[in-house]
Structures are given as structure tokens and as C-alpha cells.
């Protein structure tokens, strides 16, 4: 994945700007539209800081917040439904036919827990994987379901989205582009 320099991004068409932002945040129109309207940016760090402020503040309606958080793929989701970045972040081997029985069991457990989480909170579970295996996420999602705090879960999910975006930025750019 590569992204244009921030100077170039500031000059790009709305379509290219939004495609680039979607690379960092997934396809979340309420967020992308606000970021587009706030151009120009001095750095990608400034863009992500604004995204975090928008998502954690009062700039978005409850429905917009749901649209933003639900733009992220489910952890353990079928590989065909994941972006290239999500595949790598979730630790999938990108070669076809390499899923082990253990992988299938872990993904089945995650699918069940994702359904439980979404039924409980009304939005997707989002976590910054940060090198952890999908199996290591199972106790975390169980813990977060048990916390029973919808407002905190929305905040945690949005915060993790920003950690994901910062990590994607780090992987996609060199210091000269920041």
C-alpha cells in the first residue's frame, strides 16, 4: 500500500482524497466527508488527529458513529470480505487453501463472539490487533462483552480505529511524506 504525500493529497480530487482516507480508516463516508471538508492538512498526523477528534467528540450523530465503526471488517471474517490491509493485520496467510483446522476453529469462535458482541452493543467489535493472533483476541472480545458498557465500547472501538490508521500510515509512508 502506498499513499501520496500530504501535499499531493491536499491537491487531489475529492474521489482520490476519499479513496486514500478509506485506506487508513476503511470506507466510512461520514468521516471521509468531514476530513475532505477540512483540507488542507500540514501532515497525515494532523488528519488522523482530526479524525480522532471527530469520532470521539460530538461532531458525528449516533448514526454516523455507527456507520464509521461498522465500516471496519469483523475480526476473523471470511478472507474474501477483507481488504488487503485487514488480511495482513489479522495475520492471514494470503495464499489460497492454507487455512488450518485450528484457524477454522478460531474463526468460528470469533464469528460467534462477533454476533454476540453486535447483538449486545449494536455495532461491530473493533480492535487494534497489534501483532496478536486471532486466537489471542478471543479472551479480549469476551472481556469486552462482559464489561457491559456501550458508551465505553464505542469509545474503545473508535480509539482502536485511530491506532489502526496510525499503524497503516506508518506502514504506507516514509518520513519524507509525513
Automatic annotation (TrEMBL):
InterPro entries noted in UniProt: OHCU_decarboxylase (IPR018020), OHCU_decarboxylase_sf (IPR036778)
SUPFAM superfamilies reported for this sequence: UraD-Like (SSF158694)
Keywords (A to Z) from UniProt: Purine metabolism
Name this polypeptide is given: Oxo-4-hydroxy-4-carboxy-5-ureidoimidazoline decarboxylase
Keyword field contains Phosphoprotein: no
Residue span(s) of domain Oxo-4-hydroxy-4-carboxy-5-ureidoimidazoline decarboxylase: 11-170
GO biological process, one term: purine nucleobase metabolic process
A Pfam family the protein falls into: OHCU_decarbox
RNA-binding recorded as keyword: no
